[in-house]
Amino acid sequence: MRALLVLIFCLFGVAVGATAPVVLDIGHQSTASGAATPDGSLNEYEFWCTYAGEVKSAIEEAGYPCVVLNRGMAPTKKPILAACRAAGVVQLNKPDKGAKRYPSTHYPEHIGCGMVSADHAIDLGARCVVFLHLNSTGHKWQSKPVAGLIICNRKFGSPLAERVCAAMRRELPSLSKGIKVLPRYIGSQPSAGWMNALDAAGIPAIVFEAFYVNNRTHVDFLRADANARKLARTIAAGVVDWLSQSE
Question: 181 and 188 in contact (C-beta within 8 Å)?
């Protein structure tokens, strides 16, 4: 099935002269530790199932192809499933619950969670990869300001991460104080070895970790649909800024 999707995409790209796609990856499954608010009312998986399509739409409106991946199983809640279908989410059906690690099919020396998405992005010849996450500092509510992170792969991700950071500072200044870029290079065994695989393929990659599910200010902001859409479009604006500068 993956080979067929890659072939279709390649043929379509040749036919219309499309550039390589931006690949978006929806965050952890809802059962992942630390991926939900302390009261369970919001989790990053359902949030990005709902709003990844908004990121995709904004990127496509700027003239760039975009693909959304869900490495886990399709959501079961009807509104969340409908949002995924509307966004054309590609279901990879290989969840990494319990921090399950897989070796890369392209670079088997690199092993990690999220590898199925990294490999699929490599199959597609992705222009860049954006892993859509929400962060957490623990299982209890905290109200102190906390600096957000844009994590990136060490060799190729920094320029992309800096552009997304700049968009956050510009569009959401009160919620982006102290936001910073963190280049990350992981050995072959720890859970984030997929960053290495994308570096090996020459593909810039970032992990959006700038909002926290146990921070009341951030969660109050995210619960409003208009705000969530603004966040999604802000991320897209940073990606588009980088795309336009890297052409």
Answer: no
Q: Is 122 helix (H, G, I), strand (E, B) or coil?
A: helix
pLDDT of residue 32: 63
Ordered domains of the chain (ranges, CATH): 22-246 (3.40.630.40)
Q: What does DSSP say about strands 102-103 and 111-112: parallel, antiparallel, or unpaired?
A: antiparallel
Q: With 60 as the cut, is the pLDDT of residue 15 above it? A: no
pLDDT at 189: 56
Backbone region of residue 129 per phi and psi (left: phi > 0; alpha: psi in -120 to 50; beta: other values) = beta
Q: How many helices and strands in the chain, by DSSP H and E?
A: 8, 9
DSSP state letters, 19-62: PPPEEEEE---TTSTT-B-TTSS-BHHHHHHHHHHHHHHHHHHT
| Helices 115-123 and 2-16, axial angle in degrees (round to 10) | 40
Contact 81, 74 (CB under 8 A): yes
Rounded to 5°, the CA angle 156-159-165 comes to 130
Distance between CA atoms of residues 95 and 142, nearest Å: 29
* Interval 167-209: pLDDT, tens: 999 999 999 999 999 998 776 556 678 899 999 999 999 999 9
